[in-house]
Amino acid sequence: MIKKYLLAPGPTMVPEEVLLEMAKPIIHHRTSEFSNIFANVREKLKPVFGTKNDCLLLSGSGTAAMEAAVVNCFSSGDKVIVVNAGKFGKRWVEICKSYGLEVVSIDLEWGRSVKPEQVEAALIANPDAKGVFIQASETSTTAYHPIKEIGNLIKLFDSKLFIVDGITSVGVVETKMDEWGIDILVTGSQKAFMLPPGLSIIALSDKAWSFVEKSNLPKYYLSLKKERKSQSDNTTAYTPAVSLIIGLNKVLDTMMNEGLENVYGRHELCALATREAVKALGFELLAKDIPSNAATGFYLPENIDGGKFVKFLREKMGVTFAGGQDHLKGKIVRISHLGYHDIFDTLTAISALELGLKYFGYNFEVGVGVKAAEEVIFKYKVSKL
Amino acid sequence: MIKKYLLAPGPTMVPEEVLLEMAKPIIHHRTSEFSNIFANVREKLKPVFGTKNDCLLLSGSGTAAMEAAVVNCFSSGDKVIVVNAGKFGKRWVEICKSYGLEVVSIDLEWGRSVKPEQVEAALIANPDAKGVFIQASETSTTAYHPIKEIGNLIKLFDSKLFIVDGITSVGVVETKMDEWGIDILVTGSQKAFMLPPGLSIIALSDKAWSFVEKSNLPKYYLSLKKERKSQSDNTTAYTPAVSLIIGLNKVLDTMMNEGLENVYGRHELCALATREAVKALGFELLAKDIPSNAATGFYLPENIDGGKFVKFLREKMGVTFAGGQDHLKGKIVRISHLGYHDIFDTLTAISALELGLKYFGYNFEVGVGVKAAEEVIFKYKVSKL
């Protein structure tokens, strides 16, 4: 018997009560019953996005919403700046290039967070750039970029949009779209929203909507103008992912019930405990500047093959971590703190990590990781109960 | 958000796939569809009981099956020997006395396992005794009694039955009913069979069935003769707990799939890891002679109120342990290893125990319990993967 622990940065575990909600008989989407749920979801998303504007739901994973951001707000030949600090930064580059945009890429070593000054320099060097694309949390490197500070910079330019991939940050850390000057914010269902994949959410500022009017890129399924019209009437342009939206309604209730501050605090605590455990075990964090609270990546010793390590834990011990992507493949491990994840998931992650390390011959004192994690958890949570 | 971890010795956690099986639309019990499932369950139970005889299913919890053992095989005024070493030994005494049996009680300090010589002495002192009642695993003290050895003793007496409460031993440790001379073996659904409570199972040897013919105690719902007749035809005398039986069918498949040896080994491993952790934390095990692999009980320091401790872990941290019963109330904690429980449940249990101990001011080095548990788990499991 192997119990399964899904501790990779998405898809994440789904709460039992949400699974049960989604397992109820399917309802039709062109009904007042669905429209009521849909209206509720749209309202409840706003505080999580930190916006007064519409949060539009798309049936598609996070990449669909990223593409929607590009094709709805830009035109062929537009110059844009992309912070490229990992696999998902690279995805912004690829999407933009696919549609004929001219990309000025701020290339960073994987694991680094961009400095606001670097963005400022790019803006100064490229006065004709129409927007800045970034990840809030770059899932491939588990680094966080200083979104608030960069947003405050870009706010000063009427002619530029600030487009943020919040796929592993919305619902993980406080995100104040309106206040921070984020013009487009996208996220997906399978991360902090603890749902199965298949649903993404996108919100646009008034400035971004003004760009929509000028965009000449081809689009049909991802047309946000059409979605905004339909969704304002609490329906969707095309068939929506009904059960995921019903699940999201339940998830948002549980998040509101827990309190957004507590949701963010829980992610922060599990992330901090994991970072301290990983350091106590003698490893170097992948995120050099600002580690993300969505997941923690670290380098394995050179004599351990990360691919084999992750496979062993998944297949033999039931614990799914993520390995590295692209040039980090086989070199790192990433442990998620996302969504339906509590302190005992973190402690399970660290115990599993220790057992795996011992199996792979790493020389360390068994228990030091868990001890470090328990001390963080005691200090910031249990002692305050 | 508080995730729930049910780590008390029953009810135990139910596997998701079993919950889903039981959530399917209910079927009628007087159908060939149900009879087929019922026939399968009856066959699959036999290796777990270690018997070639019928395993009868009763809709009622374990105590119902205990009562069935008494009322079907004995008569008013019969003398019986009861090994009374905890709350459930006391239950045998109470049931027997309720029906006018004369009880010779072998009273033991809670936490002790009976010695075969003590049973032998009682048999010699009471040649007219008709049976010996015992728990295999006394859940209230987490002690195991040497069933095999006692069975071999009683085998020598044609005129006596050996009645074993296997509620927290069947499915936990190897139990060879026929080979060990057990005449009546009972168990419940909510322990090693990882189901919700409400179903119990009882098997009788040929010798026990011959006692049934002579019993004069009143019975109706618990009449085993009537049940045997119905269940031989793959139906039940009264309405059965349909969904629990369907769940049991699924559970038995998963147990066979895992392999009974592996099921027993898993319980043994989690129990051993917990015992080592508890000892490393400086505590004394409640079970003095033979600790049960179903659960581990230990004494808390005198200045920690066990009731408050268990309540804190359950309500504030989501982790349900059991406290003590009767005179041990407030003094001990019992951690289960039963059923749908794996190494990470054990490690969660130990982490939660450590965090709780620190909260309650116990002076120890955080992490020593988990370290001890991890070392056991590595030695006996992970290193062999």
TrEMBL record, chains A, B:
PROSITE patterns: AA_TRANSFER_CLASS_5. Transmembrane segments: none annotated. It holds the Pfam family Aminotran_5. Residues 5-326 form the Aminotransferase class V domain. Its cofactor is pyridoxal 5'-phosphate. It comes from the Bacteria. It is an enzyme of class 2 (transferase). This is Serine--glyoxylate transaminase. It comes from Deferribacter desulfuricans (strain DSM 14783 / JCM 11476 / NBRC 101012 / SSM1). The modification N6-(pyridoxal phosphate)lysine is found at K191. Belongs to the class-V pyridoxal-phosphate-dependent aminotransferase family. GO terms for molecular function: alanine-glyoxylate transaminase activity; L-serine-glyoxylate transaminase activity; L-serine-pyruvate transaminase activity. One of its GO terms (biological process) is glycine biosynthetic process, by transamination of glyoxylate.
